[in-house]
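DM from R.C. (forwarded with permission)

"hey, sorry to bug you on a friday — could you get me a structure for this? deadline for the figure draft is monday and I only need the backbone to look sensible"
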Amino acid sequence: MTLQLIAQTLLTQPSWSVLAGATVVALGIDRWLGEPRERWHPVVWMGQYLGIVGARIAPLPGSQLWPTRELLTGLLAWSLGALLVTTCAFFLNWVAVQIPLLWIQMFLLGLLLKPLLAWRMLRDEVLAVEAALDSSLTDGRARLAWLVSRDVTTLDAAQVRESAIETLAENLNDSVVAPLFWFAVAGLPGAALYRFANTADAMWGYLGERHGRDWTWAGKWAARADDVLSWVPARITAVLILAQGKLGLLRHLSAQARLTPSPNSGWPMAAMALALDVHLAKSGVYTLHPTGRSPQAADTAQALKLSGRVVGSLAGLAVIVWVAGLLGPAV
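My reply, with the result:
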């Protein structure tokens, strides 16, 4: 009986209304305060773990590859990191639930959720690329290099804008919609696990050489795990983008999204291309909405506006659920 009581206590989750209220708090903190300092940022801690461990599990370029061993080593290293992250998040989630006052639960969970999403930083970085591009093409390329891993040295002004808009659309999912989706599904541990998986994919999920290491096999699990966790949110993000007055274009979305090699990133990028009526391309890899025009400065502003509406619609939905919980029985 005691063990059953302990298990029930540990598995207790916040109500839907508390989760919704925490979402509003997190988005509010993000808007007004932005990112916490690096030394207090859990995603930075995840990156530090992945950087330290990654230097030990991936072989040097040109060395002999041992696919099975490297795949299993990458799986074990990823699993250990995921276990650490979700255990910490589970404990903090449990502590919050023990507080009898729901508004304190809501505020604490929102405060803990905030570092796992990053809309304001994403918006500001895309704005910075456009501002730098107004100064010079060289400045625009240099600023874009903060956001993307591709070679920017040969991009023209339109291609710099395309890359910035693509990054905005893809990270609208990775940095906002997906963390909130998994927070709704599994509370703070769900959001934390997703953020770890997405960070691991960004650092380990490469075919071939990256930062002096060969990730062909060592990073394969990290890439696949992110694909699985991003599958549903990426499609939700795409629909939310087109829901801002462009739902009639949904019939074209699937065909365009499948033009990219990624099973997920093509969905929000294709939705953004269709919504803006511009083409977005990565040279030699894909061209989304090829009949669209070349993006201009106004299209970057419109892309940010559409993305802001998506974030606003999520906040509005959270407010509705929160208020419903206040007016009626806990949901």
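R.C.: lifesaver. The first helix runs from residue 2 to 10.
me: no worries. Residues 15-206+218-327 form one domain.
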